[in-house]
Amino acid sequence: MTKLENIKIIFIDIDGTLVNSRRRITVKTRKSIKRIVDKGIIVVLCSGRNYLSCVNESKNALASEIVIASNGAQIYNYKRKEFLYISEIPKNKLELIWNYCDDKQIGIIFNSNQKRLINKYLIGSFSENYEFITDFSELQDIIISQFILVSKDYDKLSYARDFILSLDLAIGNFSSSFLKQDTKGFLTVDVINKNISKGSGVLKLLEILEISSNNSLCFGDFVNDLDMFRVCKFSVAMGNACDEIKKNANFITYSNDNNGVAYFLDKYL
């Protein structure tokens, strides 16, 4: 295949895509991204992570100054220190979630436009860079765009999922199991507003920047990247991607442990 032409913006997922299995960005990948940015192409990290984590990875990757975080619920320009878009979860729904988690003894992390907050069930497990809150009233003046339920009990989170969906909210990182497992052995469920996704975040940013989707390219590895794949003109699945992502991709590159992003960028752009 010849070089891709007229690409003005590239969206790259972080975990399983940009970073390798050791959660690191390789020198090769960093150099490839810098070359692309130097050509005038905007490179945007698009992740389920909170915006502060996305900003750190974007700086490390030498990507552009805009990130899409919380599975499309936040768009942030870190050079201007400005949110370009936030999808706020209604306070009445958050209060119901707070009371449910308090009753069922489920940990909860709130991602806001300022910081990350946790309830009492995560004290001692999630302390660094988190602020502990004791009462829901402390959230009244804080914009929450994503929250994460945390537990080592699968059944608790399974029942919680049904409660979340009854509130007309959405599971951000969805799959047949709807659960992710972190390095501490906790199971987690990411929750955002309904109709918010990486795809909606990409569309919003394209609108803000006045760039056509015909000039876009994206990389991903998991089912929460599907909406992004549907929006962008070209989509690239990692070699380590799940089958559903590979079926819906225009291209398949090497895995995240074999510099898949860098390989594709160097070959086709």
Describe this structure in words.
The structure is a single chain. By secondary structure, the chain is of the alpha/beta class. The protein has helices spanning 14-18, 27-38, 51-61, 91-104, 154-166, 198-209, 226-231, 243-247, 260-268; strands spanning 9-12, 42-46, 66-69, 74-77, 82-86, 107-112, 116-118, 131-132, 144-151, 169-171, 180-181, 187-193, 216-220, 234-237, 251-252. A hairpin with a 4-residue loop joins strand 4 and strand 5 (82-86). 45% of the residues are buried.
Question: Secondary-structure blueprint of this entry?
Answer:
Blueprint: E1 9-12, H1 14-18, H2 27-38, E2 42-46, H3 51-61, E3 66-69, E4 74-77, E5 82-86, H4 91-104, E6 107-112, E7 116-118, E8 131-132, E9 144-151, H5 154-166, E10 169-171, E11 180-181, E12 187-193, H6 198-209, E13 216-220, H7 226-231, E14 234-237, H8 243-247, E15 251-252, H9 260-268
Parallel strand pairs: 1-2, 1-13, 2-3, 7-8, 13-14, 14-15
Antiparallel strand pairs: 3-4, 4-5, 6-7, 6-9, 9-12, 10-12, 11-12
Query: How is the main sheet built?
Result: 8 strands, mixed
Helical run tally: 9
Shape: globular
- What order do the strands of the largest sheet run in, or round the barrel if closed? 5-4-3-2-1-13-14-15
Averaged pLDDT: 92
Spell out the helices and strands N to C.
EHHEHEEEHEEEEHEEEHEHEHEH
Quaternary structure: single chain
Distance between the termini: 11 Å
Beta-strand percent range: 15-25%
Number of separate strands:
15
Instruction: Please state the CA-atom Rg, rounded to the nearest Å.
Output: 18 Å
Helicity level, as a percent range? 25-40%
Overall SS class: alpha/beta
Q: Which spans have pLDDT < 50 for at least 5 consecutive residues? A: none
